[in-house]
Amino acid sequence: MESALLNVLMFWMLTTPHEFAHAWVAKKLGDDTPVIEGRVTLNPLAHVDWLGTVILPLLVSLSGAGFIGWGKPVNTNPSKLRWGLIGMALVAMAGPASNVIFAILLLSVAAHTGDAVNTLCVAAARLSLFLAIFNMLPVPPLDGSKLLLAARVPLFIYNELARFGFILILIAMSATSLGDWMSRWSWQTTRMIFDLLA
30, 114, 182, 183: most buried, per Cβ within 10 A? Predict the structure, then answer.
C-alpha cells in the first residue's frame, strides 16, 4: 500500500510541471484560455484529474498490473495560438520537454544527497523520463499526436485515431514490447544522466 501511494504521489507531482508547461507555452503563444481556466500555475490541485491522476493509478499500482494515469488536460484554442497548428504542436511538446528537464533536476539532487533522498529522486526521474517518451507516441490524446496535425495529416484520419486512441494505447502497451522498451530506455537514460551529473 505504501509503495502504491508513493507511486501515485510521484505521478501527481510529475504531472504538475507537465501540465504547467503546456499552459505556460500556450500563454506565451497568445492563447489566454489556460490563464482564464487557472492552469498557468504550479499548484498541483489545478492539474489533478481525480480519476486519472489518483484513483486509477492507485488501483492499478495496488494490483501490480503496471501503471497508467493522466493529468487534467490543458485546454487550448488553436485559433488564438501564434502559428496555428505549429503553435499547438509546440504547446504539446512542452509537456514531454518539461519531464526531461524535471528528470535532470531530480538527478542533480540525487547525485549530491544521501541514500533515502537519492533513491526517491532517481525513481521519480525514471518515471518522469518514461512519461516523456510515452507522451511522444503519435496517438490521440497523447502529446505526440499533435505532431500529426502539424504535419497536416488529414483530419478524418486523426479523428479515427482519436476514436480508438485509448484502446490502441492499451494494446500497444500490453500486447507488444513497447512498454518494456520504454521502461528500459527510461532506466538507461536515468543511469546515463546520473553518471554525468555525479
Answer: 182
